[in-house]
Please model this.
Amino acid sequence: MSTEFNVTETLDVKGLGCPMPVVKTKQSIDSLDEDGVLEVVATDSGSMSDIKGWANTTDGVELLDQKENDEGGETVYRHYVRKTE
Model:
């Protein structure tokens, strides 16, 4: 996956567990214009598979990248989703 894109909006879902990261991601992506890129910042490790699965089965979105980083002693998961229609 490439990191060659510009983030349109960032969604912070840190502290939220399944299924809320996906629910909030869908709500935010719906409000973006076509080709907009949403960065989702989560602390739920399940968000890696949940958001990937959601993006792979949802028309109009494309998962661009996912990253796992240690930020201040906390594992943070960043997901980059493009609205394609």
Observations:
- The longest strand covers residues 61-71.
- The helical segments are 20-30, 47-56.
- The mean pLDDT is 94.
- The beta strands are 9-12, 37-42, 61-71, 74-83.
